[in-house]
Amino acid sequence: MQDPRYKYLRHLGAALLAGLLFSLLVGFIFSLKMIIINESTHQFRYAYPFALNFIPLYLLLGLAFGLAVGVLGGLLLRDPGSRKGLGMALSLGAAFAGFLVVFLIFGVPLGPIAGMFLALLILVFASGLRPPLSRLYFSLFFTAVLYNYSWQWVRQHFIINPLMPVDSAKALDFVFTLIWALAFLVGYRLFLKGFFRLPVKVLYGLGTAGIVGLLLAGGVYYLALPEPAAPASAEEQQVDRRPTDVKVVLVGIDGLWWKILDPMIEEGRLPTFQKLVEQGSFGPLETIFPTFSATIWSSISTGKGPEKHGVTSFLVWKFPWTGYTLPCFITPKITAELNWFREDLITVAPMTNQFLETTPIWEILSDHGVSVGAVNWWLSYPATPVNGFVVTDHCLYNKEYIMENFKEKEGQTKYDLYPPEMLDELMPFSRTAEDLSEEEIRRFINVESPEFLNAFYAIDTYDYLNIDYEASMFKYSYPEDATFAVATRYLIAEHQPEFLCVYLDGMDSMQHQYLKYHFADQHPDKLIPENLARYRDLIANYYVYMDEVVASFMEVADSNTVFMIVSDHGFDDEMMVTGHYNHTKMPPPDATPDDLANLHPGVLICAGPGIRENYRMDGTHVYDVTPTVLALLGLPPAEDFDGRVLDDMMLDPPADEALRTYDTGRRADRRIMQSDMDEAYKDKLRALGYTQ
Questions:
Q1: Which pTM does this prediction carry?
Q2: What is the per-residue pLDDT for 126?
Q3: Element (H, E) at 554
Q4: Are 140 and 123 in contact (CB under 8 A)?
Q5: Facing residues of 8 across strands?
Q6: Around Cβ 521, how many Cβ atoms within 10 Å?
Q7: Which residues contact 599 (CB under 8 A, 6 or more apart)?
Q8: Is the dihedral of CA 271, 273, 278, 283 positive or negative?
């Protein structure tokens, strides 16, 4: 006769309650973690609605897990004669078989699935003890949650190592996962009776009341917040452009670093950069922390900090059901379930200028009669009409299939560039990874055999599958620079705008991946010798290539052109445990201006008519670029700029009176605009270590 305490509906109810309450707790904790690590959620007016939208995703997950475990628990514990369970040996065999199936199907053990297998085995063990259901499912979920996140933490910190061939790493990962699960299983067996003595109802009640109470208190505070102040808006004003006979080409090279630039200039390997330094002004460019490219390049192109331009993220999340949209891209490394959320529930798209709260420099100049061109600049998509052209960061590269069907294709493709008629001019310059010649590969990589070339051409992902895949970052980053470098040279020669800005991304990607080989003497025992031989010269070769790219621009520009070379940051002087170099070191709370200037600063080089020669500048900031470009082109700065005009480098500095603002009531509409490039862009962010 069935024990009335173990009726099927009671199993379902107890398991669902445990799943919901544990997921409420986990969702609340990770929402706080997400708010802390994402700059875009630091203000309470963004943090609170983010938490309200984020926690229900975990409640949905807890509901699904609770339902699955309740069904299985009801089946395993329905017979009152089951007193001894299936036994340790059979349980261990079942665990191994389960992990083996997951490994064969998915390629790697998955923490949440492994946690579910663990939960099943706990039920098997508990079937002979028949505890009260509330305590059974509490202990089951507690153990499974503790297992899942501890497994992922240890795996991230000690098992996954891109410096080793991944064939070995997979086997180690699988063995570790199995051992970790069995250790938790044995631990559960040893402390089973202790788990069953927990005051579960009290814990449930206090935990739920505490979290709900905090959310309600937050809601009261949120409703009491004042409306954010509207941005400064330009009044009707007559802006008289001062006569000037110069043009400006602004070349943004992501990650260009004085630590490598200086010695290579001294060696005579970078004649173009050397010429610009000797004939112009130069110095370190203080940057913004944290050093996120989207944020810094938006500050370079607006003259304002992130609190004004609003760009604090690479990606934008749009939550289901409510449609709430917020810049967000960093996730805790132990939250594998967020991959499912982002793939199936949350709409994730790259940041666009729909989230830019202020006016970029090419629009400011265009509004005041200057002919402009912008090429591949951060947040230039979707293209807006200007007095000139905008080739956005969604155009050309890896986009032939869009170009071929441009007129027929629906969606946002028409916003890739302005004016759209320029597409026919630019199509011949588009390159893909498949277009790379053997000569181009050998220029950067020391190719030791034809077999490597065959492996190189077979690479189709950023994922690190074997040592040949170390070349993937070069394969997918260099063609982007090759595309926009040649296209920009053509645009300067044929259109000769008064202002042109171009952004080149490859240097940053290369240094993240390959600086470990450039600085191999600092850690020779941590590198695969075969890869060291292949990539040791890649960084130096890429600096030479960038030198040639800038020279190609100068060859076709007017003689009255001022060239300004800027970068957003340098790098930290140490290799991370993942094998990457990064620029994540944060300044101390008591940092002095000198500390900030010396912490992986960017590069500023400016040369041309009216610029002081061989003059070193100090105290410059990324905020200063836009005010300085405006001054060079005869327009005054604005009072709401965070930067200043670098008049100390000018032979005849202007004395323009500042305007109140160049913004004309612009407000970001925070609208996600997806395109066919989004997935490739997100893959690259994962490969660089910015996202999971």
A1: 0.82
A2: 65
A3: helix 538-556
A4: yes
A5: none
A6: 6
A7: 289, 585, 587, 591
A8: negative
- The better pLDDT of the pair 609, 415 is held by 609
Spatial distance between the Cα atoms of 152 and 106, rounded to a whole number of angstroms: 16
How many angstroms separate the CA atoms of 333 and 327, rounded?
18
pLDDT digits (tens, 9 = 90+) for 499-521: 999 999 999 999 999 999 999 99
Contacts of 596 (CB under 8 A, 6+ apart): 286, 587
pLDDT digits 0-9 by tens, 439-454: 999 999 999 888 999 9
Residue 295 · residue 311 · CB < 8 Å: yes
Please, what's the b/e burial string for 299-328 (b: 16 or more CB within 10 A of its CB; e: otherwise)? bbbbbbbbebbbbbbbbbbbbeeeebbbbb
Choosing among 3.40.50, 3.40.720, 2.40.50, 1.10.3470, the CATH entry for 259-310+351-579+596-616+632-664 is 3.40.720
Q: How far apart are the first and last CA of the chain?
A: 51
Please give the Cα distance from 602 to 620 (Å, whole number): 10
Asked whether residue 374 carries a pLDDT value surpassing 60, the answer given is yes
Strand partners, 499: 248, 372
Q: Answer yes or no: is pLDDT of 98 > 90.
A: no
Q: Where exactly are the structural domains of the chain?
A: 4-224, 259-310+351-579+596-616+632-664
Is the four-CA dihedral 660, 664, 667, 668 of positive or negative sign? Answer: negative
- Ranking 121-125, 167-171, 407-411 by mean pLDDT, the lowest is 407-411
